[in-house]
Amino acid sequence: MSKITEHRKYTRQEKTKHCLQQQVFIQKDGEITWKENSFKYAKLEEKGVDPSKNVSCPFCLGLSRLRLFLISTKKGFDRGKGKCPLCGHMTRFQTLLKVMSSPEQYAVFAFTYPAWSFWERVKHAGFGTWKKRLCMMGWTERFWDEYKRQRGDPEKEAEEKRIKEETEKYEQSFDEPSKSEETIEV
After folding, report:
1. Strands 31-36 and 54-56
2. Cα separations in angstroms, 65 against 56, 146, 163
3. Separation between Cα atoms, residue 99 and residue 78, nearest integer Å
4. Would you call 151 exposed, middle or buried from its count of C-beta atoms within 10 A (0-12, 13-18, 19+)?
5. What is the rounded distance in angstroms from the CA atom of residue 135 to the CA atom of residue 103?
6. Backbone phi, psi, residue 139, to 5°
7. Which of 10, 84, 108, 162 is 20 to 30 Å from 53 by CA-CA measure?
8. Residue-by-residue pLDDT tens, the chain, 186 positions
9. CA–CA separation, 106 vs 99, rounded Å?
10. Residues ≥6 apart with Cβ < 8 Å to 35
């Protein structure tokens, strides 16, 4: 072979290594099967991110592996954003990898998310599904308490105390006869 054809063969092999969409036929026990390119997730691993790590979509609270969030482009995978396989919303990897270990952190995230787009995305993903998953995680009450605190709503205890006082006043008004009733009886 000439040097030109050897060089072309070498460049073709190198391109194949770096083609993230490449799949390979392998023959195993007489059967031909597909095998994914072993270099497919190399760029994520170079950044110190494990593609098999479980992450939660912040809009539908669905739990999936990070590799399922990858978006295919002509040059490989989008390095900044991912697409939830369950609800289809685009999310930055930075958001996906943020560890939200408590409902309080999640409530702060939901409240500080730009404009009303957090609730629009939750609504699009299915509010009932989101609510069920929040309940399954055991975060419902703590999430809403923190969200209301962030929003500036009155504290739960203070609100309950105010309602109780108003109820007592209302009930006392029925216990005391009014002046108009006294004049009618006389």
Report:
1. unpaired
2. 9, 28, 47
3. 21
4. exposed
5. 11
6. -105, -5
7. 108
8. 688 888 887 777 766 665 655 565 566 666 666 666 555 555 555 556 677 888 889 999 999 888 888 888 777 778 788 899 999 888 888 888 887 888 999 999 999 988 678 899 999 889 999 999 999 999 999 999 899 888 887 666 677 778 888 888 888 887 766 555 555 554
9. 9
10. 23, 24, 25, 26
Residue 23: both structure tokens together: 């799949």
**Angle, vertex CA 104, rays to CA 103 and CA 110, nearest 5:** 85
User: Which residue matches tokens 């930055």?
Assistant: 92
Among 83, 54, 81, 78, which residue's Cα sits nearest to residue 66? 54
- The span from the CA of 95 to the CA of 77, in Å, is 17
Give the pLDDT of residue 168. Answer: 86
What six digits make up the tokens of 73? 């482009």
Supply the Cα-derived Rg of the chain in whole angstroms: 30
Asked if 71 and 78 touch (Cβ cutoff 8 Å), the reply is yes
Rounded to an integer, what distance in angstroms lies between the CA atom of residue 59 and that of residue 106?
Answer: 11
CB 129 within 8 A of CB 86: no
Least Cα distance to 109 among 56, 162, 157 occurs for: 56
